[in-house]
Specification:
By secondary structure, this protein is of the alpha/beta class. It is built from 16 helices and eleven strands. It is globular.
Length: 491
Amino acid sequence: MNLKDLAQTGQMQQRLSALGESLDTYLKFEYGDAMQHQTQWRDRLNQPLPEQGIGMTGLMQTLENDVLPFASPIPRPGFCGFITTGATTAAVVASTAAQVAAPQRYGLTSFNYLEELSLHWLAEMCGVAHLQGVYSTGGSVANLVALGAARQLAFERIGVDPSLDGVDRPARVYASSECHHTIQRSCGVLGLGRRAVIAIDCDEQRRMKVDALRAALQRDRESGILPVAIVANAGTTNTGAIDPLAEIAEIAAEYQIWFHVDGAYGLPGILDQRLADLYRGLERADSVIVDPHKWLGAPVGIGATFVRDREVLHRAFTQGEADYLEGSVESMGQGSDDKHSMDDFGIPYFDYAVELSSPSRGVMVWAMLKEIGVEGFRQRIRRHNDMANYVADRARQHEHLQLLVEPTLSVCCFRYVSDEVEDMDVLNQQIFRQLVHENAVIPSTTRVQGQLAIRPCFIGARTDMNHAEALVDAVLRIGGEIVAGKVNQKR
C-alpha cells in the first residue's frame, strides 16, 4: 500500500460517496446478466491470494468495474421469483451506519434502543402489538425460535425442561401441507424430528382444513402423544394463501396448544384493508414471525419472532453465564447507576434466540418505517396485491392462459395453455426458462394441485404495474412462439 492510499484509508465519506455513485449506476439496471459476460469478470477476479494489497483506490476500481456490473438480478424491478428483493435506500444507509458505528446490538446505545423500538413499531404495524420480539437472520431461524419456545412450554407442562435435559418422548407439530419446510427443519434441529410435523390437508384455495386438523389432534390425544404447536400460515410461499386463523386459534385454545403463525412473507398483507378480515385470530397467536427482508424491503438477513412472553425464549435459548461476558458489565437491568454504555448489555437479545454476536438489525427496520411510515407501506402492499389481481384478470380473460388458484396476496399462479400441446408442464417450463434468459421479468415456478404454474410474487419496492403487464405479455408472446414452432415441426 502506497502512502497516498494509506492516507485515504480514513476518508470514509469520499469512499462511500464513490460507492453510492456506482450503486446508483447499478440501479439503472442497464447491465446484462452476469453469465453473459462470465469469462470477463471471472478472469479478472480469479487471482491468487494477494501478498500485497492494492489499496482503497484499487479496491474501489475493482468493485466498480469487475463486481457491481455483474451482480444479482434479484434487485431488478422485474424480478418476481423468490420472496426476497433489493433493499431500499433507507435500509442500506441505516445498515451502513450500523456496520460502522454499532457492530454489535448490545450495550446501552442508541442502536440497542432502536432494536427494541423498531420491534414495537413492527409489531404494531402488523397487528401483533400484544407480543414481544427478537430479530434473527430470517424466517428459518425465526420459525426455529418460535417453535423452540413452543417446545419449551409444552414439555415444562409435563415437568421436563427440554433445553436442559432434552426431549424424552414423541411430540407433534401440526402444520398444513403448504407450510414452509423451515418448519420441518426446525423440528429436526429442536430434537423433535422432522417426522414430528403432521401435514394437514388443504382445500382448493390451499388453506388448512380445520376438520382435518381437529381429527389429527384427536387421534394423537387418544394415543397419548404430546402436542407442541399448531402452525398456521399468514401467506404461504407457494400461493400466498392465508389459513383460517380465527378457527385454528379456537382449536388451539380448546386443546391448549401453542398457536404459531408463520407470516414471514404475508404478515404485512394485513395493511391492505380489503384483506384485514383474513387476519382475524392473529391477536390470539402465541407466536408470530415476519421477515422485514421480504415484503418490507430490508436487506436480506432480518427476520423477527414475536411471542407473548420473552421469558419463555430465555428459558429455551439462554446460553448461561460466561465470565468474559457478565464479568465485563457492572449491572444487569439498566440500573440508574449506569455511567457508560458498556455498564450494561441492554436488553439481552442474545439469550432470546440462537445468536450471541449479531448486527444491529433494528435500525434498518426503524429507518424504513421512519422514511415512509405505515401509510407508505400500506400503499406499497396494495399496489403489489393489485398487480397479482391484474395478472389473474388477464388469465381469466385470455383463451391461452389458465388461473390455477385465486390470488390472496401478491402471488398469482397461472400458466399458458394450448390445445396444440400435450404436456402443459413442459411447455410452461420452457416459457419460464425463456423468461429467465430474457432477464426482464423473472418469476419462479411452483406446483398447484400437481400442475406446473408460473408464479410471480410481487414485493419489490421498485416494482410497479408495468412489470405485471410486461410479464403477462411476455408469457403470451413466448408461449405463442413455442407452440407455433411445435405446430410447424408436425407439418
